[in-house]
User: What shape does this take?
Amino acid sequence: MTQILTLEKRTALTGIGFVTPTVLIIALILIYPIIQSIVLSFGQSSIDGFEPYRFVGLDHYSKLMGDSRFWNALGVTFTFTALSIPLELMFGIGLALLMNETFKFKGWARLAVLFPWALPTALNTLIWRWMYNSDYGLFNAVALQSGLVERPINFLGDDVLAMVAMVVVAVWKTSSFMALIILAGLQSIPRDLFEAGRIDGMNRWTEFTQITLPLLKGPILVALIIRSMDALRTFELPFNLTDGGPAAATESLSLYAYKVIFDFLDFNFGAAIVVVQFLVIFTMSLVYVFALRNKD
Amino acid sequence: MNNSKLYAVGLAAVMAFGAPITALAQDLVMSIGSRGYGGMVERNIESFQAANPGATVEWNKVSDVPGDSRKLYVTGLMARSSTPDVFAIDVIWAGEFAQRGWLEPLNGLIADDQIAAYNPSFLSAATVDEKVYAAPLYLDGTHLFYRTDLLEKYGLEVPKTWEDVIMASKTVMEGENNPQLYGFVSMWAKIEGLFMNWLSFTGGNGASFFDADGNVAVNSPEAIAATQTMVDILYKHKIAPDSILTMRPNDARTLFQQGRSVFLMVQDFVHAPLSAADSPVAGKFDFTRNPYFAGNKDAHSTALGGWLLAVNANSENKEAAAKLVAHFTSFENQLSAALDENRAPGRTDVYKAPEMETASLIRDFGANFAVGVVRPSAKTGSLYPRVSEAMQIEITNALNQKKTVEKALNDAAAAVKQILGQ
Amino acid sequence: MKSSPRFGLYFLVLLTVVISFFPIIWLILTSFKNTAGIYAWPIQYWPDPFTFENYISIFNNSPELLRYILNSFIVGVGCTAITLMCGGIAAYALSRLRLRFAGVMMVGILAVSMFPPVSLLPSLFQNFLNFGLLNTYTGLILAHAGLFLPFSVWMLASYFATLPVEIEEAAKMDGMGFVRIFLTIILPLSWPGFVATGLIVFIFSWNEFPLALVLMTQNAMRTAPVGISLYPGEYAFPWETISTATVLAIIPVLIITAIFQKQIVGGLTAGAGK
Assistant: This one.
């Protein structure tokens, strides 16, 4: 029977067949829920069918625009992203350069770089929360005993410090991830370019800025995209570190949405928040994808 | 054709015979945690089954962390599940669950005189539109714990007002001159407990959440003054550690237990660990009613919490379930829970029982419950989580000095009014 | 000339290792302190007494911990299996069959991978509730598969793209079916790619939080990160329990990472390169 179908047709059919399971799952888990969230956000209903669905148009969205907690969450999310990404990039590049060298104990170094990435964010955040504790934490113990400060620092109780604390944890965890991506780029730079630079009398700094950095543009962009998407949707970091505190100073958009949906049980308003978050991230991802396509 | 007629008759016969059989065999599922009172649950289930042959009760042990069990219940209730038939709810969920139609009204299913015996302020938290939706199982409340040895050393009397507390704290702190010793510690993290704490302070000044006409009154002058005292305790009088703003009840208890605080205001469960053999403050502490502000001797300042038993509105065995609830909250069983597990009863008549003479601890706790203040969960119903959240945020803003007390409470009032649609 | 930059290099390496490891070291030390030691002031750097009591008592106090770890395993393995199977054939089709819609689909898959998980929550929760998928392994495995298929398709596609074009030609000439080609030719040649992808997806699934938090509400069904994160309650942060449980919960991931570090790093760098 298969002989009747041309190779091209067979290829096409196989292609569709092979792709279908993936498409189905993605449609079910990723695409359909987004559409449903949009529908939910335009109506008023209750989860158990107690109240049937009622179309309310843009009501939730106008309420959202006037919701100071929403704007706060948006601000927190952007601030967190803007602070952590540059730092992660910097440390990532540094680590990648380090890993590119050859030295003994490279296995240990590689493991050291990999561990923070491999740990579940949620649990790793709990560890940091303990270290930041103002009465019994490691950081305060060291600060007090070394005479740096007189009263314990309330890391997680001060809104500025709490954001800083959160950024530190994020940078600690993901610099390694950035490093790995950039390392790939580093390893693909042909060695003879460095040779030529050496012959021209370049020192390490010029070598870095004139040869390495420009050629790393691609991987850096990829790393930036992935990390900023992640940072914009950060959830378990504030959830476990500060629960959005003190008083919503570290409440990211994801965390606020979660609270509205699961603590207040307001699925419709929560859907509006979630749709806005999705639009923000989707827009940025489109921008990035375009940038990537033009790169090649 | 004949076959189906026969079949129908047969079916009717089976149902006719089956009905009384099923009436005897009631299978109830009860969801309740176990830490600290498991014995009470076991005893009561056994005695219920003995008194009602054919009825079986399956004990579904749920988490003791309120947030956890709430999520579990909510998922099941949203799916209109018929089990659990009976479940234990935190006092602040009663209004919300009732409003969402998840609880079965108990008037008529439980005798009126039994309902009349329940603690009134507590019962009010579970009463919506004159219908009672849950029965109080046990109460807890916040009390002021103090170091007897330190007060004695400086010749101080047990404080009655906040002014007394502040003065006593300062005297002891100056006298001891120990940078690790604080005057006052409590649970001021942005948690439900903070809201309870705030209600203690404001209640102690004669303020209430709603005024007599039912309007939101969180920014009344009395409330503002009381909240200002909380801020002053931290920044003006400096008798509390900075970390009080991140403390949960157990953190505050730990500090007090290490001997690092003169006063502690938290729930009664801390009494056991504080009096344990390895506790540095065992034998050196006692407790009294929460302070009030001068001139408000009868103020209600004991923040109440606790658990009630409710019947699932979708249960298939509502009468049997209500009987189980009545059984758990009967005079005898509440008395034995008080004596054996130190569970403060949800009924006022139990406190007067002669056996309670020996249970002085519960009796003393109970005396404080008489001047209790509950959170406004019944009136706000399903909007309570949002109201509590709004209050917690603004109180935290005031305590962090991000806003003046007046602005914070005005904003809180505006937010709560908006939530309630007032 | 060489020695002083070398010294600087080794110093930086040491610094990196210390910074990366110290939280985990602190965690392990904490788990060996008793309650008094954990809350001691001044702080105990080294546990005194050094005790195993937390590890012994954790199985009495929190018997569900083993269950959490088991759940994480089941979900992780299930998710990895499905992701590799579905993702594998999809990646093969999109990278080697020269389909007309391949480019668009790859971009589309990339785009959907950026959806924030929290955006999916309201409707996923509602749907799973209505279809009885809440608190089931199937449900969470499916959800995780949805989350990680895009990554796995992209990674496997990049591996397949490195295989020479000719290897299939002969088989196609012979009229071999694509399924057979995939199983007998492609798979054996690219299994390192499968291993790397599988390891990374397993780690992703183990660490995943928002969906696992919401789709498993029964304590017995929770995954390890979620279960442990919920130990703290309104009343307390039980640090003794949390630190011990965390150590136990991260051991599997750390072991996998340590053993397979080369593959994982290779996978991440190669995949990212694309």
